[in-house]
Amino acid sequence: MQGRRTLTDRAFWAVCGVAFIFIAAPSVAILVTVIHQAWPALGWQLFTQRTNALGIQNAILGTLLLLLGVLIVAGTVGVAAGIYLAEYASGRSEASLRFCSEVLAGMPSIVIGYIGYITLVYEFHWQYSLAAAVLALSALVTPYILKTTEVSLRQLPTTLREGTAGLGMPKSSSLRRILLPAALPGIMSGLIVALAISTGELAPLLFTANFTDSNPTLHLFHHSVPYLTGVVYTDLSQPGQRYHATSAAAGLMSIVILIILIGLGRVVSSRSRRQTERMTL
Amino acid sequence: MPEPATWVTDPGSALPSTAPAVARADQSGVPDQIADPVFEVRGLDFYYGRHRALQGVDLTIGRHEITALIGPSGCGKTTFLRCLNRMNDLIPGTRVEGDIRFDGRPLYEPDVRAIDIRRRIGMVFQKPNPFPKSIYENVAIAPRVNGQKGKLDDLVEESLTRAALWGEVKDKLKASAFSLSGGQQQRLCIARAIAVKPEVILMDEPCSALDPLATIRIEELMCGLKQDYTIVVVTHNMQEAARVSDRTAFFTVEETDAGRTGVLVECGTTRKMFTSPSDQRTDDYITGRFG
Predict the structure, then answer these.
(1) Residue B66 in contact with residue B233, Cβ under 8 Å?
(2) C-alpha angle with apex B180: B175 to B184, nearest 5 degrees?
(3) Which residue has the higher pLDDT, B70 or B29?
(4) Could you tell me which of B3, B14, B54, B27 has the C-alpha nearest to residue B246?
(5) Lowest mean pLDDT among A155-159, A274-278, B254-258, B281-285
(6) ipTM of the modeled complex
(7) With contact defined as beta carbons under 8 Å apart, do B108 and B116 qualify?
């Protein structure tokens, strides 16, 4: 009996170990490979020079600008739609909004990019531009923000809602003063996931932002925008060690941004967990 | 219209139902009849979807009295309590039939706003549910939302004092409400309700999640609050009903052709309900034969 238990125990640990290796190995391998390949290109010139020389300054600035745009557009729309779904929608409007959001969430990013191209870039005459790129990325990540906002509002204890109602507080003030602040950590982590996805996307940007060796500007229309994944893609197809190293450096830079975002998400969600634990008493 | 339950609880009474309330009082000093009603409920049916949860409830609740609602699980006492401040409006698919009057005015008229009603009829819940904010903010938030401007320090102090909590929290008003013990949190919820200056406070098993000492403190508090507020309290605990209430209403579950539904058996002064109830079912419940 004792022997069988030990055996089962060991088998279980072995399965866990294999699972761990399956998850850890690819991420470590990617990190090691990218750092190794980027090594010759690493240096301050990455931040001081643009992609027409040895740096990726314009791409870093462009990616950060795109993230800001996504935060404003997708953040506003996603959070508002999430609040609407969780608190106000019912019947047909709820069903149709939920359906549209799920369709959008499952849409391949290259399709979103192509539709952005034929409508915004071509039909609207916006050309390759910040506005078109931000809208395409926002269409891609809004469903995530919507979902996390809705879920974090819905999982607030009913007692909290009843507490505000029992005091005769109107729904709008209850939302603004009690429910949204309580749901904020969850909403924040949704925003961070959305930004992380935006950092790593290439397909929608190829169709809407194009690329440029100049630094990005705040012009919404008619100006192409540089971005990190663009450097990864184009420089990798260039001949020559130097380009490949720059390509890897741009990849490393997106990974760094990703890790910073994940770290922020960790801090926020651990705060959120503490708070909900206290709320359920 | 059926005779209201409160007025027929004493079959020995020779007085007509319109007689002044001071005419008779039992030994506890609570008059048999209610002179100044806050709520008059007549023929109340309540539905969750197609299921009828309450049937034909007639009950009068007197001003500045503590009325306890007792009965076995599922008898609709909490549902009844939540009808009194229209909390059930929040649950989709519910329906109220019959007449509930609050201060003589129908509660369920289209021109009566549930929000206004809930400001006049406060509520304390089974589980302490302070907001995830500071102690001060928990008390100040509803008056501020309701349009009170300027410093609310005096109101916060007054409300916390009335809820017998001021002494324990006056030095840490900025601390999170969750740093308080369960009993303190429940008193904070009472302070929060008082701060809106209601006329009635409804309490839904306010002590069921608390230890005996915290329970005693809340019960003492209720007796003190009776001077200024009308209190209706749902309780599972018959000793609690006997300790704090002036009047007790006993609900039970009945099997009808439409399924299990809650009915009011009788209501009378607490002393009478616990010593000589008119109905056999009340006697069975109080003596612990079921429920």
Answers:
(1) yes
(2) 125
(3) B70
(4) B27
(5) A274-278
(6) 0.80
(7) no
Contacts of B124 in chain A (CB under 8 A): 166
Chain B positions in Cβ-Cβ contact with residue A278 (cut-off 8 Å):
132, 176, 178
In whole angstroms, give the CA distance from residue B52 to residue B54. 6
Which of A162, A170, A279 shows the shortest C-beta gap to B115? A170
Are β-strands B105-106 and B121-124 bridged in parallel, bridged antiparallel, or unpaired? Answer: unpaired
Environment class of B150 (CB within 10 Å of its CB; exposed 0-12, middle 13-18, buried 19+) = exposed
Task: Find out whether B107 and B117 touch, Cβ atoms under 8 Å.
Answer: yes
Residue with tokens 């919404």: A220
Residue from B240, B133, B130 nearest B191 by CA: B130
Q: ∠ CA A32-A34-A35 to the nearest 5 degrees?
A: 65
CA nearest A170 in B: which residue?
Answer: B115
Q: What tens digit of pLDDT does each residue of B230-282 get?
A: 999 999 888 889 899 999 999 999 887 778 899 999 998 999 898 888 888 88
Whole-Å CA distances, A244 to A29, A30, A58, A255, B284: 18, 15, 18, 17, 87
